[in-house]
Amino acid sequence: MSKFLKILAPAAGGTASVLTLAYVLADQFVRDVPAPLRGVVSVSAANAQTSTQESGDVAEQAAETATADAEPEDAPVDAIEIASGEDAAGHTGGFGLGRTALPEEVVAWDIDIRPDGMGLPAGSGDVWTGEEVYVEKCAVCHGDFGEAVGRWPVLAGGWDTLEREDPVKTIGSYWPYLSTVYDYIYRAMPFGDAQSLEPDEIYAITAYILYLNNIVEDDFELSNENFLEVEMPNADGFFMDDREDTELAQFSGEVCMENCKDSVEITMRAAILDVTPGSDEDDTTESIAEASAEIEYADGDVTEEEMADGTEGAAEDAPEEVAADAEAAPEDSILAAVSTDPAVIDAGEGVYRACRACHAVGEGADNKVGPQLNGVVGNTIGAVDDFRYSNVFQEAHDAGDVWDVDTLSAFLANPRDAMPGTKMSYRGLQDEEDIAAIIAYLVDASVE
Amino acid sequence: MVIKVKGTKPSRRNFLKAAAAAPVAAVAGSRAMAQEADPAIINKQPWMQYLGDGVDARPYGMPSQFEADVVRRDVPWLTADAVSSVNFTPLHELDGILTPNGLCFERHHAGIAEIDPAEHRLMINGLVDNPIVFTMEDLMRFPRENHVYFLECAANSGMEWAGSQLNGCQYTHGMIHNVMYTGVPLRLILEEAGVKTAGKWILPEGADASGMTRSIPMEKAMDDCLVAFKMNGEALRPEQGYPVRLVVPGWEGNMWVKWLRRIEVGDEPWHHREETSKYTDLLPDGTARRFTWEMDAKSVVTNPSPQAPLTHGPGPTVLTGVAWSGRGTVPRVDVTIDGGMTWHQARMSGPSLDKSMHRFYYEFDWDGSEMLIQSRAHDSTGYVQPTKNMLREVRGENSIYHNNGIQTWYVNEEGAAENVEIS
Predict the structure, then answer these.
(1) CA atoms of B258 and B228, how far apart (whole Å)
(2) Res B313: pLDDT
(3) Contact flag A180-B292 (C-beta cutoff 8 Å)
């Protein structure tokens, strides 16, 4: 700790920074609620900071350490005061909060099962019944014989593979306790319809899974009576974490800092089998390339809304949608209402100068702070590719709303009233003639 | 230094993007001259001339539109379905030690439970004197504490056991986040129910459709666990367990049960799915470690890294990264840019908090030659982050979880970075 602080303190520079650090440290060092509980009840009116004298001392030390290399006379008084505040939590005998759980409430929620059978409900089910229920409820993900569909968990097989390069960890090959199977099905399966199975159905499914793993014969019936008699093949395959004995000493101690090796060679490269999303397709296997192509993260054109929905792939659908929307829009009748008078268009070009900084129109127009405006009059609202619209635009787009003379005029007159939440920071055009002119200019200046 | 590269040259899209945007390379000590005036200065920018949004335009502030790339990302092929999957914190885009709430990686086993806090209950049952039900309002009346802790998924870096696989620290190390929790010491809540002498374990259970459960020894429960309802000052995000989750400092993330609805006290562990079938560490002899709760000390250089190449050319360069340990603080991190021939002690910056992420920096003048960059964490117990091969010697390649081996990034002359392993 002190070493770190010595490194940091000079780098931090000003006393103010050091004080901030001391404050943070002191705050963190506070063991707010003391252990063991002390027989003192008090209410701290000033703030929620609570501590014992003991933890206050620690904080004080921390504060001192923090300033040791800086200016001792500027002791962080605030930190010390906060850290040694009143002992608000020294409460014995409980707070009297909450209420006693009713027995039926505990029964409703406490349905978990333990290896010693604690929690097992009364019931039974046989292998053949289990097969029927399993095929109906489980096989869609786990396969008819527990072999799994796609990347869903494999439930059967894999015996004697645990020492191999690619172990197959199934209920039969790996799981140490049968209770785990029952418990998990009981509380969490079927996936997406949890806690919908009756105890007898779960006994039956469990019996079928045992059968799939060659642990029982096909005439087996599992019940709460014989449950503990079933021995799982890998029951003895687990032992308590022993890193403390096998690793910690080996991975501690002095390290080499200089001349540690004569040469270095790259032995493995991610580019050889690159499975990074969005990475170059020629590095990847076909299936992975497809998965990456759907995502296309790296292009950075994912819209806010798409991110919120988690449907990045929607970006690819956008052009088609726009095309369909444009077809449906009565574009010609909208454009017929727009002036083609050159004087009006000229006036519109003048007014448009206020828009240019954010919006481009015409040949080669790209999105800037705002979307490019080619063809905006008569088009669906929010239809420009690769532009991150605000929600209100996205909603209008999704609803199929179109920029006609009326909607565009209202928007240009008062953008925030017309499209609440728009990101366009423009106060609006007061003059109706200016609005008509700018619309005329946008139509005239647009290119395909 | 001679670096022997096998296979094709790196041609990463990230690098191409970066190279296109790269300005004239600066040489240390000599300042570049502009040929013509910078349009960013000469031209009036719209934000200098026109008014911006008013105070009510963004009631909940979001990042700038220019930060749209800074998002959690997933690896689609990794899991069967997005509702039982994981995405990754964009570590290469972050600095300091705190993870913004919206970027904290997600791991769900049955999707995000959307819970009305008024309908949420926390039940304490089992070997207690008095089984209790708490409402959220009840929980808010207990004394609270504030602590910054990292949460790391036990499977973080789990795809790298057999060798370099994913290009980006977001994918290799992004199953971690570090936030300040506000919550009630679990001890106070358990004491409210009165734990019987025989009560040696607890079983926290989530309210989501996976019914997440883990067995936790009573010593840990009574030590530093929190029942937390705030992260970085605001309510937990739904994907992080709103309205209330368990905080199990320094221990694997799966134990930090989200949407916490029940805690059972028992005399033995439950050996449920997530502590038998999953989150057990298979060794080469076919046996497996269970209850590998503590997260070993670990570090990673976040910049430069494959998603964050060097685009500025030779000269002053900032190397930075994060380090953490489930057993305490990380007072020291060493870094190397020559594949471990020479190491340098990095500069730690920011608070050094128990079981929290730490930030380190190493500033140097890059000469434009190839680099092999690594970082090596030393935690407050004296443990030193091992190499991947040291881990493999003990654990083989099939243990999936708890891969805290030293990460290597190869950086070529153009600044592009790649995930590699070295001799």
Answers:
(1) 10
(2) 96
(3) no
Report the alpha-carbon distance of residue B77 to residue B79 in Å, rounded.
Answer: 6
- Splitting chain A (448 residues) into consecutive groups of 10 residues, what average pLDDT does each group show? 41 42 42 44 38 41 40 39 40 79 97 97 97 94 92 93 94 98 97 94 98 96 97 97 96 96 93 69 35 31 32 33 40 82 87 74 80 90 84 86 89 85 72 89 88
Instruction: Find, among A77, A75, A78, A80, the residue nearest to A55 by Cα.
Output: A80
Task: Show the beta-strand stretches assigned E in A167-269.
Answer: 221-223, 238-240, 264-269
Are the beta carbons of B7 and A241 separated by less than 8 Å? no
State the pLDDT at residue A426: 65
List CB contacts (< 8 A) between A175 and chain B.
Answer: 276-277
Residue B134 and residue B246 in one domain = yes
- C-alpha B186/C-alpha B217 separation (Å) is 13
Task: Tell me what pLDDT residue B80 has.
Answer: 77
The half-sphere exposure of A221 on its side-chain side, counting CA atoms within 13 A, is 7
What is the per-residue pLDDT for B410?
98
The domain made up of A318-445 has a fold known as Cytochrome Bc1 Complex; Chain D, domain 2 (1.10.760)
Q: Is residue B33 part of a domain?
A: no
| Domain extent listing, chain A | 2-83, 111-229, 318-445
Query: B102: which chain A residues are within 8 Å (Cβ-Cβ)?
Result: none
Average pLDDT, chain B: 93
CA distance B274 to A180: 9
The beta-carbon neighbor of A265 closest among B4, B82, B351 is B4
Q: Per-residue pLDDT for B298 more than 70?
A: yes
Least CA distance to A103: which residue of chain B? B131
Q: What is the pLDDT of residues B365-410, one digit of tens each?
A: 999 999 999 999 999 999 999 999 999 999 999 999 999 999 999 9
A111-229 against A318-445: fold identical:
yes
Q: What is the pLDDT of residue B349?
A: 98
What is the CATH number for B270? 3.90.420.10
Chain B environment of A173 (Cβ under 8 Å): none
Q: What residues make up the domain containing B212?
A: 101-289
Residues 6+ apart with CB under 8 A from A209: A130, A134, A146, A155, A156, A171, A181
Arch. (CATH architecture) of A111-229:
Orthogonal Bundle (1.10)
Residue B335 falls within a domain, yes or no? yes
| Under 8 Å between Cβ of A222 and A207 | yes
| B248 & B384 share domain | no
**Exposure class string for B242-268: b at 16+ Cβ within 10 A, else e:** bbbbbbbbbbbbbbbbbbbbbbbbbbe
